């Protein structure tokens, strides 16, 4: 009996060892195939050395040579504006640093659009396009979309005020005056990664000089309200004007032309004279006009 038990034990150990050897061989074969696949992929896709950040960097932080490292990047998919050498990234030397304009993650390539020029600060001027100006609008919880605005968002601007119409008196209207205006700052920050802690009091928009004049006049003569535009919304808003009558579907009362016609002017006064000749002159002398 003991011999049978020993035989079974030996056979079991042998089978277990065989199974372990086969599984190990299978894993080794898979590893070899995976390595071959990676080598083939690397050979098929050429790479190029570019500089990337080696830590998480937030908006407004200075970018120094200690913050970057070279990495291999697939050359066909290299984004525009990448830096291939430290001399390109810091052309004026390691002491003249750049400032980060957009947050970057570890091993993310440094692009020209994400940093300032060497020695420049990060500010609103970096966000303005050519020929554009920054204009500040006062807002509150209602007109400022209840604090949901961030730099980079686009808004439609509505003006509400009173207009005078000749003969009809004043009329309260709300009108769309600018569409798809880009926000560049909320209160005192232009960082779009920071959530607004409260209701904004001012927003700064990017506008052309003509738009700045329109907004300044509108803000001085009425109140401005903002409507947030969807991130992927490319529609162009048409001219919109609403007053109380159009809002409630009311129609203007018919005009009584006869009632509103101005009264006829009084006839000119009658003047009666008598002409008399005095020597060589003819003189008109006023006299009372006869009745009727």
From TrEMBL:
Signal peptide region? none
Q: Where on the tree of life does the source sit, at the highest rank?
A: Bacteria
Q: Where is the Flp pilus assembly protein RcpC/CpaB domain?
A: 124-228
User: This chain belongs to which protein, by name?
Assistant: Flp pilus assembly protein CpaB
The record lists the organism as Rubellimicrobium rubrum
Organism lineage? Bacteria, Pseudomonadati, Pseudomonadota, Alphaproteobacteria, Rhodobacterales
Q: Source gene?
A: cpaB
């Amino acid at each position: 009996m003991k011999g049978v038990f020993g035989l079974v034990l030996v056979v079991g150990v042998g089978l277990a060892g065989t199974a372990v050897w086969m599984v190990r061989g299978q894993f080794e074969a898979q590893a070899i195939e995976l390595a071959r696949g990676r080598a083939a992929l690397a050979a098929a896709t050429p790479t190029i050395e570019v500089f990337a950040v080696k830590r998480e960097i937030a908006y407004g932080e200075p970018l120094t040579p200690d913050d970057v490292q070279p990495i291999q990047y697939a050359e066909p998919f290299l984004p525009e504006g990448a830096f291939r050498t430290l001399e390109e990234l810091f052309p004026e030397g390691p002491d003249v640093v750049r400032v980060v304009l957009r947050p970057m993650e570890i091993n993310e390539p440094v692009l020209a659009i994400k940093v300032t020029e060497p020695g420049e600060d990060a500010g609103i001027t970096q966000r303005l396009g050519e020929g554009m100006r920054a204009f500040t609008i006062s807002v509150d919880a209602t007109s400022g979309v209840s604090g949901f605005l961030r730099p980079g968002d686009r808004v439609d601007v509505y003006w509400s005020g009173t207009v005078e119409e000749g003969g009809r008196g004043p009329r309260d209207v709300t009108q769309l005056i600018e569409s798809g205006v880009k926000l560049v700052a909320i209160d005192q920050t232009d960082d779009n990664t920071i959530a607004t802690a409260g209701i904004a009091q001012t927003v700064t928009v990017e506008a052309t000089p003509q738009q700045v004049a329109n907004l300044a006049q509108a803000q001085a003569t009425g109140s401005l309200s903002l409507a947030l535009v969807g991130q992927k919304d490319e529609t162009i808003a048409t001219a919109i004007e609403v007053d109380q009558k159009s809002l409630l579907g009311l129609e203007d009362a018919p005009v009584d032309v006869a009632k509103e016609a101005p009264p006829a002017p009084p006839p000119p006064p009658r003047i009666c004279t008598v002409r008399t000749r005095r020597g060589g002159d003819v003189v008109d002398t006023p006299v009372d006009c006869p009745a009727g």
